[in-house]
Amino acid sequence: MAKAAYEELCAHSKKTFVLSSAASVLSWDQETGMPPGGGDLRALQLAELAALSHERATDPRIDAWLKVCEQDAAMRSDLFLHANLRGMRRDYDRATLLPESLVRELAATESRAQKAWAQARADSNYAGFQPWLTRMLELQRLKADCLKSSGQSRWDALADLYEPGMNATDLRALFTPLRKRLVELRAKLDARGRKPDESLAKVEFEVPRQEAFVRAVLSAMTFDFTRGRLDRSAHPFCCGTLDDVRLTTRFHKDNVLDALGSTMHEGGHGLYEQGLDKDHQGTPLAEAVSLGIHESQSRLWENHVGKSRAFWQWCKQNAMRELGPLAVPFDADMIYRTANVVSPSLIRVEADEATYDLHVMVRFELETALLHGDLDVKDLPLQWNRLYLDYLGVEVPDDRRGCLQDVHWSCGLFGYFPTYTLGNLYAAQFAAAARRAIPDFDDQLARGTFADLREWLRSNIHQHGRRYTPSELCQRVTSAPLSSEAFLSYLEAKLCAVYEI
Ligand code: ZN
Fold first, then answer.
1. How far is the CA of 109 from the centre of ligand 1 (A)?
2. What average pLDDT is seen over the chain?
3. Is 266 assigned a catalytic role?
């Protein structure tokens, strides 16, 4: 009886997956190729598919099937089945805990708040967004109250949606020492008073040449173009899964390193999706475990590979040939240094490796305070600017480049930002473990051989899907719980060498 119920569950889950994968292709098309006139119909198509998916995800039969399986002792003791059932239970509970009226109100407010935010940002006028942020916070508190389990704060309940098990107390314990050492490192590099040469960043390479270059790197990373593709969009992203992964990147004439970084970043996300276990497609065992772990895959390729000296030894001699004669005067060591310049800035998405997490910590401090009523919405710009000066040493000239820069809060994404930093910390810990497992790691990178690293990531992380929780996975792969130590030692060693300190 339990076996039949499990089969029903998997069949139901796979059909829901087919439906949402269709929505994903339509969203990708909206960002890459849809003519502007298609917008109204596309919104209707996506809303209809989202409603159908939600209806399927909240089907009461799921609860009944799950109960049958959960009571079966043999199933509980089977690791694979147990993990799949745990994932399905989590998804069902999350989908059904929110009342229909709140889901509708949230969707309507998000779309209007996003429009108000875009206008307020264009005008650098916080007052235009303030009432929407106030309303959004009220709704997020209601949402958190529906999701909250005992011992969880409201912020914890929202954060758990993106990173199962994450809570503000554990994050503070991770972030406090991390912030201190990152601020010290920034000061140390500042005091050095000399920056690596940045002239490569100003050379204008034709976009078709840049595209051939990033495609050569993506192929070397073993991204499978028979099961994925690369296109352009204003904001790079990765969507799709397994045999159909869609990546996008962007090109600026005078910033080839941005195109490379974006492509390797999205390529890392794409390799994770291509590395999931196809036998379980459409069920939790073939889904990414969390946003933090997903981000660890993109940051590992973007930073630990793409900003390493060994990578540039290969890249300069090989993929970079695609850039033509303008690239010739730059040697590998020079580009490696350029790729690692640290420059505290106002904008998170443009931040370097040493200051990125400080941007995230500002948002974490502020959104926990906003959500729990310890910070008044009207005081947000003031506190934002104060923390930027404190953590990053930069003066915020206006709200457009200050608290209005990110779309997240207008979309109702509270509890989301810290997954970016968790990604950086997981990436460093995974990269250190990969180095231990692959003794000639740097020699391989210098030869452009990335298959062993990809295989290590696949067998240790990708193929497990949601079999383990993020913290179980980290312990299993690195033999240690998550900490900031691997990240800090990697970063301090690299930057002190680059800055000759
Ligand atoms: Zn990412």
1. 26
2. 96
3. yes
